[in-house]
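Form 7-S
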Amino acid sequence: MSIVQESTPSGFTSTWMLVKGAPDILFPSVSFILDSKSAAVPFNSYQPRLSRLQHQWSLEGQRVIAVCKRPLNDVKLPEDESELAEYLYNEVRNLTLIGLISLRDPPRANMKETMRVIRSAGVRVFMVTGDFLPTAVAIAKQVLIILLYGLS
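Output:
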């Protein structure tokens, strides 16, 4: 998902494309990362460590989201909404990673017992998801669900 936002810090108007999504999908489009002083530095040396972090968090059942930005100051954006959407889709490149967000949305406490009751009634339960595979597996294990991944 991306949005375009104009900001006016200190009287200077700048236009930004802000993008959020799954790290494994966005990382190939990321060229820079903000360091601790908010300076953009090359991303390539950080990617392996951040990919491992995404995997670790996902194994814990957390959903991980990358947040990125890209300046669009020298770009004339199309006014037609459908053209704008296609244009922005094509401009998801040379991004600067701002950070990773990890969300934990644990299953309800009674899910394991609910699954036992459902199974004892002869019902087979499957989980169909588009989540990052380690996240889906972790959640499925927590609630005793059989997992079908990547179905469309």
